[in-house]
């Protein structure tokens, strides 16, 4: 009988710990999800911006990958775990060479957070370089 009671108590405690752990998660929160470069000149070369990501969860946040939509866009991002309440950065570069006119590019961010995927955007208009 003591063994049965001990087993039941152990199972109940394990279930309680399991439920408590379900309340722990990382969460990527982006104060801004779109950046507008406005009007840029092709002749001035690449432009860049930095998106902040804040971990509003209670477990460390990992940025697993940041995918860009074309070869005209590159990125750098925080690779270390981001502690709860702290922030990391995603720096995005856009090269307007040979791309006159309006643009809107997406940046897909994958994390271990509660919401696993987030899409960020950069946009603007490129004025072509004068012909030589």
Describe the protein's architecture and organization:
With 132 residues, the protein is an alpha+beta fold. Helix content is 16%, strand content 45%. A four-stranded antiparallel beta sheet has the order 1-3-6-5, with no helix packed on it. A four-stranded mixed beta sheet has the order 2-8-7-4, with no helix packed on it. It is elongated, with a radius of gyration of 23 Å. The termini are far apart. The model has no long low-confidence stretch (mean pLDDT 89).
In short:
The protein is α+β, with helices and mostly antiparallel strands. The protein has one helix at residues 2-22, and strands at residues 28-29, 34-41, 47-55, 63-68, 73-77, 87-94, 101-111, 117-127.
Query: In terms of structural class, how would the helical and strand content be classed?
Result: alpha+beta
- Rg (C-alpha, Å): 23 Å
Nearest-integer average pLDDT: 89
What overall geometry do the principal axes of the alpha carbons give? Answer: elongated
- Could you give the distance between the termini? 94 Å
Low-confidence stretches: none
Portion in strands: over 45%
Main sheet: which strands, in order across?
1-3-6-5
Largest sheet: 4 strands, antiparallel
Helix percentage range: 10-25%
Per DSSP, the total helix count is 1
Number of strands: 8
H/E element sequence: HEEEEEEEE
């Amino acid at each position: 009988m003591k063994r049965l009671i001990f087993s039941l108590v152990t199972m109940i405690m394990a279930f309680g710990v399991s439920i408590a752990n379900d309340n722990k998660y990382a969460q990527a929160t982006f104060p801004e999800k779109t950046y507008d470069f406005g009007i840029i000149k092709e002749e001035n070369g690449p432009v860049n911006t930095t998106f902040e990501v804040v971990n509003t969860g209670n477990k460390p946040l990992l940025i697993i990958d940041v995918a860009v939509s074309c070869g005209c866009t590159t990125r750098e991002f925080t690779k270390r775990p981001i502690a709860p309440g702290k922030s990391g950065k995603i720096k995005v570069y856009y090269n307007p060479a040979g791309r006159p006119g309006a643009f809107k590019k997406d940046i897909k961010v994958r994390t271990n957070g509660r919401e696993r995927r987030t899409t960020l955007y950069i946009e603007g208009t490129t004025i072509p370089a004068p012909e030589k």
